[in-house]
Design brief:
8 strands, binds pyridoxal-5'-phosphate, alpha/beta, 8-stranded parallel sheet, 230 residues, TIM Barrel, globular
Length: 230
């Protein structure tokens, strides 16, 4: 049952928060519903889950048009191509993966055209893996300064995806690094830049992420079961 799986994840988030002296209410669960059929998303919604994460724009758009944006909060968590930027304004509450100034400028332009704005997290490639998207840690300060001029983008924090390792403890240092980087950037007091959110942790390592300060965990498999392909 989806409701049982959701409850287990929420309990584990709460326990991890308490273990690290945090308030469980400061951690939000993003149910990652990529490749999950709408019926199961409805079940999760009925079990009280409101926030869902999607990583493919076409699939996300179909779900949003089917399920709506009143009862659901949709987060875009995948890599976004510049030619799809306009779709961010059709029902998304948060964009987790802003990773370049070029993309940001396209978003700013589209938002101005629509007289709208969007909340976003900057994705950081904290481990430096070649295959990962995200800005390099040493380039973050410059990007944030550039983003502070783009008034239609409301930066709320940072996202990272650590390397995949069998032991979730291996992710801890990357989560801690992201938090430390956030603290350092926050101390610069860059205008229009808020960094209160940390989006980190997936099925495999969300408890470690919560212990290290995650405010948003993106969990799919533990809620909906394994996906057909990754
Ligand atoms: C798929 C995905 C997740 C969720 O992964 P699970 O291991 O199923 O919890 C989280 N974040 C991103 C960016 C994803 O693409």
């Amino acid at each position: 049952m989806i409701s049982d799986a959701l409850q287990i994840v929420k309990d584990r988030i709460a326990q991890a928060a308490k273990r690290s002296g945090r308030n469980p209410e400061d951690v939000s669960l993003v149910a990652v519903s990529k490749q999950v059929p709408a019926e199961l998303i409805v079940q999760a919604r009925q079990a009280g889950q409101t926030c869902f994460g999607e990583n493919k724009m076409q699939e996300a758009r179909e779900k949003i048009s089917h399920l709506g944006e009143q009862e659901y909060q949709w987060h875009f968590i995948g890599h976004l191509q510049k030619n799809k930027v306009k779709y961010l304004f059709d029902g998304f509450d948060l964009f987790h993966s802003l990773d370049s100034l070029e993309l940001a400028e396209a978003i700013q332009k589209e938002a101005s055209r629509r007289n709208s704005s969007i909340a976003a997290l900057v994705q950081v490639n904290i481990s430096g893996e070649e295959s990962k998207s995200g800005v390099a840690p040493e380039e973050l300060e410059k990007l944030l300064i550039d983003l502070s001029r783009l008034d239609k983008i409301k930066v709320k924090g940072l996202t990272t995806i650590p390397p995949q390792n069998p032991d979730p403890e291996d992710a801890r240092k990357y989560f801690a690094q992201l938090r430390a980087l956030r603290d350092k950037m926050e101390s610069l007091n860059i205008e229009n830049i808020q960094l209160s959110d940390l989006s980190m942790g997936m099925t495999h390592d969300y408890e470690v992420a919560v212990e290290e300060g995650a405010t948003l965990v993106r969990v799919g498999t533990a809620i909906f079961g394994p996906r057909a392909n990754q």
